[in-house]
C-alpha cells in the first residue's frame, strides 16, 4: 500500500513542476508583451508610428498584437488617406458603403500603387502588352482607365 502512495506522489511532483514552469513562461511572455501591459492609448500611439508595411508585419506577430491592430480603425485611417490621394473615387465610394478603414485600405492599396505608376507616366513608352510588367498589374474599372488616359493625353 505504501508503495502505491509513494509512486503516486512521485508521479504528481513532475506534473506540478511542469505546471509551475509553464505558468512562469506565461508570466514572462505577458511581461514582455507591451500590448497587454500598457494602456490602450499608449499602445495605439506606438503602433501609429509604424508605416503600412511595419503595421502589417506587427499584426502577424502574435494574437494580442493582431487583435489590437486589426480592431483599431484609427491606425489604418492615415494610411488609407495617403492611398486616397491616388484613389479618391474608390476610397470615397468604400466609405459611403460603410467599410472600415482597414478594409478600405486592403481593397485599394495595391490598386493605388499600380494606378500611381500609370498616372506618373511610368508606362507611357510601352509599345506592346508584352512590355508590361505582369507581376504588378491590377484589374481596374473603366473610370480608372479614363483617368489614366486623360493623364497620358496631357503629357
From TrEMBL:
Span of domain F-box: 32-79
GO cellular component, one term: SCF ubiquitin ligase complex
InterPro entries in UniProt: F-box-like_dom_sf (IPR036047), F-box_dom (IPR001810)
Record function comment: Substrate recognition component of a SCF (SKP1-CUL1-F-box protein) E3 ubiquitin-protein ligase complex which mediates the ubiquitination and subsequent proteasomal degradation of target proteins and plays a role in several biological processes such as cell cycle, cell proliferation, or maintenance of chromosome stability. Ubiquitinates mTORC1-bound TTI1 and TELO2 when they are phosphorylated by CK2 following growth factor deprivation, leading to their degradation. In contrast, does not mediate ubiquitination of TTI1 and TELO2 when they are part of the mTORC2 complex.
Keyword Hydrolase attributed: no
Localization (cell): Cytoplasm
Chain intervals for the UniProt region annotation (Disordered): 1-24
Record keywords: Cytoplasm, Ubl conjugation pathway
Protein name: F-box only protein
Matches recorded under PROSITE patterns: FBOX (PS50181)
Gene3D superfamilies according to UniProt: 1.20.1280.50
Pathway entry: Protein modification; protein ubiquitination
Pfam families (UniProt xref): F-box-like
